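Lest this sound abstract, we think one record worth quoting, the chain in one-letter code, the fold tokenised, each line plainly labelled:

>
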Amino acid sequence: MTKKSMFSKPEITFLNTMRVGRIATVNPLSGYPHMVPICFVFDGISFYTTLSEGSKRIRNIKSGSKVSLLFDKYEERDEEWLTLQGLLITCRISAKLHRKQRFFYERMALANQKILTI
């Protein structure tokens, strides 16, 4: 059975043009957000990114943190903004770590990295 995307066609088009996004999680002890840039692959339904198994991201996710993904771009000319466009996705996920994710490896050409599926 094929999964249906939660994203509209314009959102999918926008996400497919992005090369870098940001992922934010919350530290359960301090309550402070932890946000870092990520390179990712998007297949129209899920996002895939690499991470270290002991990273703050994965520790926060394993402790039940909600996750926010932010993708944005802007255009400027002569130091003036012309457009600003973005998409914020907030969700709760379980940490799904994979040693191999063929789709990700083919797109990102990485070897022996763990993959987080969001």
